[in-house]
Design goal:
six-stranded antiparallel beta sheet, 431 residues, 57% helix, 6 strands, elongated, 2 domains
Amino acid sequence: MPAAPGCAKWPRPSRRPGIAATRGSGRSCRWRRLWQCARWAHAADSFGQGRGYTGAVNHVTRYVLRQLVGPLAFITVALLAVVWLTQSLSFIDMIINRGLSTFRFLYLLLLLTPGFLLLIMPIALFSAILYTYHRLTYDSEIVVMRAAGISQNSLAGPALALAGMATLVCYVLSLYLMPLGFRTFKDLQFVIRSNQAAVLLQDGAFNAIGEGVTAFIRERGPNGELRGILVHDRRYPARPVTLMAEQGVLLAGENGKPRFVLFEGNRQELEAGRNQLSLLYFERYALDLDILGEPPATRWREPAERYLSTLLWPDTSKDDVAYANELRAEGHNRLVMPLYTLVLAALAVGALLSGEFNRRGEWGRIVGAAAASILFEALGLGLHSLIVRVPHLTPLLYLAPVAAMAAGIVILRVRRWPAIPWPRLALLKAA
């Protein structure tokens, strides 16, 4: 197989001890470049059969894609683990003190995962592109690809193709999986709160279990019964009520709303205007706690629980009319957020493939790309908040990612590298 011009001057790597291999590949940096250069030359050797440039480009695309997928998967899993860890802190008390099972805890986190992935995916892809292309440049593989005649667009193609696939995944997450998961999460959260006394009340502490209702439980029995109960009900400020009982249970009443059933206790009520205490002893007393709102079938759905059709075209109900701007803003944001993947990918690949080669590294361009991505994310958050107050500015939400993508493509097209023509077949045969 003929060698490409410029490859023959690279010597074989030294076999002496102390010459470090690169990343466990078994080849030194120079031998790795020589090996890659020979592969590009082999692809170029088929130029006379009409497969030269296309074959080289296809090989470059597959090779760079393989280099991108690994860092993307690792960064996505790492960021998802960090988000899971931070979100799990809100469930720690429910697990330790209120009896939430580990399986149900993991299921709740799984339901929230599509929303986490929608936020993580653009950042993970941006970081993977920066890492991969910087490593390829540092190992001079980009230089070898350019020497083989691979164009700027062909070098950027794998990153943009992967960004396109990630964008489609983000649209599935945004339009279907995220609202489905969050809706199921809220419904399950309602069931847990209304049916599980162990999840709702913590013994040995005062529990605020609703607007104006506070309960104290001395201890919990082995069968779920509650002992030493004190309940203070101030939902009617003019007539506050205090109940004390030896024992009781917390049951699900009508429509799944919890109900305190108390045994062997008394009810104390302070009559308004007379400052006189009314005392009533009872053997059994039921106290309904209307603290969890409406049941899942009838309660108002939050914007994060809704699908796109009910966001852009809300109902004529009282709550939907009051929050119409918030619902429409969330709907437009669902359509725009997946485009952030393409925007950040264009910024990353444009920053690393433009400009001259620098052996000291490309940290300046990496920092610039990171700063541009942070500014773009901040702009997106600001526009989302702005269109809630001024709906007429909604087109700006779509214009921002289009302008940012165009800027990334322009930066990519401004190539300061010297153009290296494709090696002719005659030169390859003469080498």
